[in-house]
Amino acid sequence: MPPKKRNPENAGLPTRWQYTRNAYYYQVPPGFEHLWDNKQTFKLGNNLSEAHRVYAERVEIDEGDIRTFNQAFDRYMLEVIPEKAPATQTDKLASIKKLRPVFGVMQPAYFKPMHAYKYRDIRGKESPTAANHEMELMSHLCTKLIVSIHAPVKARPLNFNLLIFKEQIGDFR
After folding, report:
1. Residues 75 and 139 in one domain
2. 78, 122: one domain
3. Contacts of residue 14, Cβ cutoff 8 Å, sequence gap at least 6
4. Residue 124 shares a structural domain with residue 51
5. CA-to-CA distance for 129 and 109, rounded, in angstroms?
């Protein structure tokens, strides 16, 4: 049986997170309640930045546990996005929401520039600007995977300057 479809307001959030009653909550896996104050549902915070900080404090992150881009996206959401301005956080989360279905189950070690170019070409037909933002996030994510997470990624698989669509500058005369 396929997993239950997530509510739209919870789409893009990490696994087991949900947004209800103007706050972010974590559904504690069975058997781990003792790590979460003996609660089945733990309140993480009223805003997304606070929720990511509380979750990161509570969860020990193993350096070698990044096996898929879904895990890399989750880690990026915990460590990088909370440091950004609120508007930037919203934009980055929207980009991750679009990238997850395409790259989520892929292993970072097998990610090649041709995958990014193919995604950019397909996505760029719909929205070139959004494709640029999403490729910028993938480039930064790959850099983070190499530099701080030490995941097995080819050295700088993406050259961001070659990935972007050249945006048309209007003649306003």
Report:
1. yes
2. yes
3. 55, 74, 77, 78
4. no
5. 27
Q: pLDDT tens digits, residue range 113-158? A: 888 889 988 998 998 889 889 989 998 888 888 777 666 665 555 6
Distance between CA atoms of 12 and 6, rounded to whole angstroms? 9
| Cβ 98 vs Cβ 130: under 8 Å | yes
* SS3 label, residue 14: coil
- Strand order, beta sheet including 17-20: 17-20, 23-27, 41-45
Q: What is the pTM of this model?
A: 0.63
Per residue in 24-72, pLDDT (tens digit) is 999 887 767 777 888 899 999 998 888 888 888 877 655 556 788 888 8
Task: Give the gyration radius of the chain's Cα atoms.
Answer: 18
* Cα–Cα distance, 153 to 111 (Å, whole number): 7
